[in-house]
Amino acid sequence: MKKASCVIAVLIMMMALVLTGCGDMAGGATVFKVEHDGITKTITFNTDGTCFAHEKGIQDGIYGDITIFSGTYTGNPKADGILTLTVTKSVDFNNYPRSATILTNENCPLIDITPETITFVVSNGRISGMGTNNGRISGIGANGKQFIRQ
């Protein structure tokens, strides 16, 4: 009887862990994605109010797998409305190793920048309003293509 009780207790604990994991996935990060010229671009909004943009693919013969910027946001990325990002770190593409055939954050790290604000409009699961005209963050755009919530 004692053995059966231990087995049941272990099974209950395992189920609790599994259900907790499922709950985290359902309430976890929100990701928007676009494919553009062979590059996958994503913007991830974490539940703790932080966000980052990432690019992966080949452009001009250089393979990149790199976080482009990071910062914080306000608004609800899971619903239609306004998202306001405050970008505090960005890649400095003016100073990456020119001989590199692979770009990662190891050879092209995020650096602290003067905070920049970007306002996005989320409508029907899509983001519009990419980038700033006078800041460093204009590179996240996709030439008119919209990021789609995954």
- Name the shape in a single word: globular
Percent of sequence in beta strands? over 45%
Q: What structural class results from the helix and strand content?
A: alpha+beta
Helical content band: 10-25%
Characterize the largest beta sheet: strand count, sense, and whether it forms a barrel: 8 strands, antiparallel, barrel
State the separation between the terminal residues, measured CA to CA: 48 Å
Order of helices and strands, N to C? HEEEEEEEEE
Main sheet strand line-up: 1-2-3-4-5-7-8-9
Mean of pLDDT: 77
Low-pLDDT runs = 1-25, 132-139
Tell me the Rg in angstroms. 20 Å
Count every helix, treating DSSP H or I runs of 4 or more residues as helices. Answer: 1
User: How many β-strands, per DSSP?
Assistant: 9
Can you put this structure into words, describing what you see?
The chain is of the alpha+beta class. It contains one helix and nine strands; from the N terminus they run αβββββββββ. An eight-stranded antiparallel barrel has the order 1-2-3-4-5-7-8-9. A hairpin with a 4-residue loop joins strand 2 and strand 3. The model is unreliable at 1-25 and 132-139 (pLDDT under 50).
Notable traits:
150 residues; alpha+beta; eight-stranded antiparallel barrel; 17% helix; disordered N terminus
